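Recap for those who missed Tuesday's class. We walked through two folding examples back to back. For each one, the amino acid string is listed first and its predicted structure tokens come directly after. Nothing is annotated here on purpose, so try labeling regions yourself before you check the end of the notes.
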Amino acid sequence: MPLLTWDSKTTPAPVAGSLEVDSLVYPQGMGYPKMLPLDRLILGDNLAVMSALLPEYEGRIQLIYADPPFFTNRHYPARVGRGEDSRQPQGWQLAEGYPDAWPDLDTYLDMLYPRLALMHRLLAPEGTLYLHLDWHANAYARLLLDEIFGPERMLNEVVWVYHGPSPIRSAFNRKHDTLLVYTKGEKYQFNADAVRQPYNPVTIKTFASSPKAGFGKVPNLERGKVPEDWWYFPVVARLHTERTGYPTQKPAALLERILLASSSRGDLVADFFSGSGTLAEVAARLGRHYLASDVSYRAIHTARVRLTAAKVPPFRVEKEARSLTPPALPADWTAELTPGAIRLPDGALAGLDYWECDPAWDGRLFRSAAQASRPTRSGAIPAALPLFPAQPGQEGLLRLVNIHGAISQIPFRHL
């Protein structure tokens, strides 16, 4: 079997990694305070994160979706403004987003190779990996996956097709990505009935009009068909209700098809390049448990905001011990307590992206029982949150995150 080699290639191995729990999040108070969150959102380099997860999760994850950097050698800023004209990018309010720049291909492969090897170890015996790339690096990645999984374990090369404007005038417009689908073993989960789609109306009409259609083989037209290995879904830029502003965000429909095909309700799934958190949100909605991690605080924050707005089951926010978090900002104001609610003064709302409340702060672990975030398109962030009852004098804590990611913490006491 051909192997891909490069000067700096080494045998992949785990690295030292340690995880710390930052907070427990109960979206809109669901399950607070007794439910133990099973789902995990983790900040940190995924090589260290996956290494730290090995003792608990090796051979246990049913599905891993990986959407790593594509080797585009570009930087992708995040949009943090609201109510902006999508056709006028010069007026967008931007922040640091997603870097995909590399000194050379060897450096990129040094990043990708050990991470794919760890994903293979984490997969369950009947598990499946979906590796999402494009023309920049998918040929190299396929050779790596053949080496790690075995070429006989390649299940599909799925092409995701989309459309949109392109500046290219000297070649065909590049409007597809590639999903390399590999299974851990000979037996694997594929739920054909969960992803069936209606036949084209022309096909239905043809079989209705001619007994010779299909050369005597008549499909079950009512049941529908299993999709081909090319899929059309619009990009998120065309889906106003999904856009988070995070660059490279993938559409929920794409992840839904992947999750329905290769996992079942109650299964554990993972995305270690989680970005805006699409897999985590869709997995929670479909009744799967998830592990989601990213090296970028912007990504983890975006996913947290998205998950709380979607009212999914409780989840843990964690960080790898060496991960970088934004600086804390002091606050020179206090919150107003009213019966059943806590309110921020007007001065605290300017530039605020998200805030949450632990009504019974124990000085160690933040338990988020209520959350508010800026609307994704326009409008103001809510100035008040519901407040769970507590004994008079009980200490509580507010956490606030501004549009640049800086965090403030404001203690308060119940009346």
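Example two. Treat it independently of the first, because the proteins are unrelated.
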Amino acid sequence: MTQKQDRHPRTTVGTRLHRVRDLSTWLYRVRDLSTLGNNSINNSINRGRGITRSLLIILILSSCGSSISGNVAKPVSSTPAIFQRPNTTPALMATGNFRAYALPQTQSGIMRPALDHEGRIWFGEMGHNALAVLDPHSGQIEQMVPPHGADGIMGITVASDDSIWFAEEYANYIGHYFPDTHQFKIYMLPTITTPDPSDPHKILTLPVGPNDIVLDAHGNVWFTENNADSLAMLNVQTGIFTRYPLTPHKSVQTLYPYGITIDRAGNIWFTESALSLIGRLDPHTGTIRTFTTHNPAAPLMEIASDSKGNIWATSFDAGLLVKLVPSTGIFSYYYTPYTGNTPGGLYGLTITPNDEIWLTITGENTLARLDLLANHFLYYTIPTPGSSPFGLVVDTQHRVWFTAAGVDEIGMLQP
């Protein structure tokens, strides 16, 4: 079922017009025309940036909004109101205090954040080829440039020793950063080949596209390979990768595995955005089982597990939060209300130890919490228009930290 591979030398990349999947009408079917990196060796080699490059372009285009000055508390008050629309879970407008921390530059391209044990917020800046950290106590932001980086830090997580693991999607490696010594260690991934859809006589060389990332109980690094239609695991003791293809035969950019999480039993869960399904990998046997939502119009993105073993995932273009009970295979659907003509674009998802479910509704400029007992969402509208919230995490003081990509800020909500 699996094959083991040693680390592969870094390959330079060139350019081509990349086909972008239709995530939603909100993404306007953007095509990636960007060029990054050194193309001196072979201009036919492709970077294969996948879904996340489309998202980054939208973030950069939307970054012209005004920003809040750093470290200013923003209380929010509004009259509670319920939005009722067909086939949606109601939403109650809630109040909270917001604070914003402006980043040093514009067009940062920030997506997923992670919290360390000192309460610092780590994130990648895809627009500036940087790994960055915010210290909430001082308000200072520090930026580090990863070796051989290519503006592709997407997935990020914190180990038990507060070292930082991240996926460099475009430079095609898994990175490990040690804050105490300011040292990086990188683990290069293999490349894949596929026929050029614009010229069948040419072969393109692509990165596997590591995207989301998570650590298991042994400290091993699991991640999705967006281009290679695979999952993979880095054994941190040996430095060897084990790959788990999601198709019986080699495929490239067909399934788009995206989010990844681990439940309390150690099972690896992931989303396949192309087929709108959730998959489960048993790491002991290599067995993969999939659960489909039967809703091709709702590609799934981020994924998380609660304390009861239920699996949750967001759908960007459908404005949908789904819940899967693995023991029965039954899905529950929670459509979020929206104020415009199209759904608001669910992306970020996090679940606290006491099973609070938080998410970002990017198009609505809103953070939301699902109250399961009351069967409604609580909506916290971000005071800065055009913030474009994407990733979020909740700290031990019940503060919600989020990336405000549209205005180049790290935001904080105290509900």
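Answers for example two:
The first helix runs from residue 51 to 61.
Confidence is low (pLDDT under 50) at residues 1-48, 56-85.
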